[in-house]
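Data follows
____________
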Amino acid sequence: MKLLLNTILFAMAAGFLLIGIHQHMTLGFINAYWLYMLSIGLLLWYQMRKKRKEQN
């Protein structure tokens, strides 16, 4: 279950990053900023879970 959640987190982060890049190219940075922040937040959450798993 934990591996599935980690995979979903990473996939969502990558997907939001790609959508953010597309929005940046079409509408500008201001309209894509929230997508970048969401993607970075998900990546940080993924890394935190990964490090916690390595410590245990």
User: Anything to note?
Assistant: The helical segments are 2-27, 29-55.
